[in-house]
Amino acid sequence: MTTPGRKVSLTGIKPTGEPHIGNYIGAIRPALELAGQYEAMYFIADYHALTTVRDPELLRHWSRSVAATWIAAGLDPERITMYLQSDVPETFELTWILSCVTAKGMMNRAHAYKAARDRNAESGKDDLDVGINMGTYNYPVLMAADILLMDSDVVPVGKDQSQHVEYAADIAGTFNHLFGGGKPVLKVPALVVPDTDTGKTLPGTDGRKMSKSYDNTIPLFLESAKLKKLVRRIPTDSTPVEDPKDPDSSSVFQILEQFASPDVTADVRKRLEAGGVGWGELKNTLFEVLDEKLGPLRARYDELMLPGSELTDLLAAGADKARVRAREVLGRVREATGIQ
């Protein structure tokens, strides 16, 4: 049941790799800021991950890793609901029902499906659908079911994921028109896009956008010695130590300003612009700031990832809460459609 007076926020996290500092700045931190404004729910989208992940041990590890990461980063399990998507089977009944009211033409326009076809076209393949599984094609309907099953009021996502929320709203509207009988059965969700400051993307260790696909990430819970070594690898230009430097053109500084205090950031900026500070010194400062900031998170994460930690019970309790809400919504849907 929804807490009276509080709107519900739903965030889905796909377990497809080890978390990195770009995830923290671009997704985790903005979601933490929203958690205090809503009745916040978070699910680990392990079934979504099956479109690409083929290693069962990795999927199990990454699913637990995502949950441990978000809790270590500051989510309070006593105040929010976190659960595995696979622990809420009602999702898949709703997925089928929604697929029966979803236009195929709309699915043809889904970004992930279109991008996969475009890649086939660019490589000269005659069959533009070769190598594309139905999970990729049906992905937006499953996402809509995730969102609608929790009576979500808002869904915070980056701009590149906004289509999923728009599709969920469109599908809910279609369902309500066909089966609502003059009143809404499914709540139509709204999109919340983090602002450019809190949802900023970070440069990676090669200067490009930090991304697992580029293999240029800084893992969020990397041990100190390896963290220092990785920070030292971030490319810089050949400006001499004594010359003034433009902080905003530096990948190292762009990362620093997202983790350091305003006072430290302002001081470093001033000294770089004045000259006399080398890139090596800046990298040392970045390492120290990251290690101080992430050290406590790393310790909590390691604790949660131990066999027999409270993480399993926390996820089970979250699933119980989520299923109460799911049964209520699915009950309305069944009654509206005539399913006994």
Number of helices, counting only DSSP H or I runs of 4 residues or more: 13
On the 0 to 100 scale, the average pLDDT is 93
**Proportion of residues in extended strands:** 5-15%
Low-confidence residue ranges: none
The percent range for helix content is 40-55%
Q: What is the CA-CA span between the terminal residues?
A: 22 Å
Tell me the radius of gyration.
22 Å
* Secondary structure tally: strands: 5
The class by helix and strand makeup works out as mainly alpha
Please state the overall shape, judged from the principal axes of the Cα atoms. Answer: globular
Give the neighbour order of strands across the main sheet: 1-2-3
Main beta-sheet annotation? 3 strands, parallel
- Compressed to H and E, one letter per element, the order equals EHEHHEHHHHEHEHHHHH
Write the layout of secondary structure elements.
Layout: E1 8-13, H1 21-35, E2 39-44, H2 46-49, H3 56-72, E3 81-84, H4 90-99, H5 104-108, H6 111-122, H7 134-149, E4 154-156, H8 162-179, E5 190-192, H9 224-232, H10 251-259, H11 262-274, H12 279-304, H13 311-337
Parallel strand pairs: 1-2, 2-3, 4-5
What does this structure look like?
The protein has 340 residues and is mainly α. The protein contains 13 helices and 5 strands. The strands form 2 sheets. It has a 3-stranded parallel β-sheet with strand order 1-2-3. Strand 1, helix 1 (21-35) and strand 2 form a beta-alpha-beta unit. It starts with 7 loop residues before the first strand and ends with a helix.
